[in-house]
Write a structure and sequence with these properties.
The chain is mainly α. It is built from nine helices and no strands.
Length: 230
């Protein structure tokens, strides 16, 4: 495998690994729902109203895993058809993930140690994710691939918040401490903020190119701007 090939796969594999813990936790929760688990204070809200949770887990997992491969430039260039087809899957499922996250926030009781700050964070970042992915769709329809790419990256970064939050929660967990409303809010918010900062850094690394314009002298249709990746 060449260094270029390794670079093509490094980011997707890293993003899939980042998704692993939330995906595993979601699978366990789905098993509880399917198996009729004994109600506890932690799972009663899911067992009594499982629809938003099931939709959220399935859509978020597919969104994060499929979306990871969109970050391989070589894969996008070699398999443009796959890139387009997976994008048609990824964007709607990402929006479903964001909206079901909001649904759960409004429908379920706030569990301890979450408080009003975490509640507000979930509304803020869930709404921002949905808006980012809708704008990504709007921009690709306008053939503005640079803006499409930027909004997809932003939406994906927010969607991967649960993966990063595993690490922002880890220090206190390793120290054996208990989360308060304040430390829980800091750990949750840090996961989203770190991802957004990294996303904005990635977006600004490359100079922005405007929308594709047809060439009057071309003998045939111009190649799709989508081939330039996100």
């Amino acid at each position: 495998m060449t260094s270029s090939s390794r670079a093509d796969w490094l980011v997707p594999v890293s993003l899939i690994l980042l998704s692993a813990v939330p995906a595993l936790a979601g699978t366990v929760r789905l098993g509880e729902i399917a198996g009729g688990a004994t109600p506890t204070p932690e799972n009663t809200r899911f067992l009594t109203d499982p629809v938003p949770l099931v939709l959220h887990i399935v859509s978020a997992t597919v969104f994060c895993v499929v979306g990871a491969f969109q970050f391989s430039p070589g894969l996008r260039r070699r398999h443009l058809g796959w890139h387009r087809a997976s994008g048609r899957i990824m964007l709607p499922l990402g929006i479903v993930s964001a909206l079901t996250g909001l649904w759960m926030t409004f429908a379920y009781d706030v569990p301890a140690p979450d408080g009003v700050v975490v509640y507000a964070q979930r509304i803020l970042f869930g709404s921002a994710m949905a808006v980012a992915l809708v704008l990504a769709y709007v921009e690709v329809r306008r053939s503005d691939i640079a803006r499409h790419r930027a909004w997809v990256i932003r939406g994906y970064a927010i969607g991967q918040g649960a993966g990063t939050q595993v690490f922002t929660h880890l220090p206190l967990m390793l120290l054996g401490g208990e989360f308060t409303e304040t430390t829980r809010a800091l750990a949750m918010g840090a996961g989203w903020v770190v991802n957004i900062v990294v996303a904005e850094w990635i977006i600004r690394r490359r100079p922005r190119r405007g929308p594709a314009r047809p060439t009057p002298a071309a003998a045939g249709p111009e190649p799709s701007a989508t081939s330039r990746a996100l």
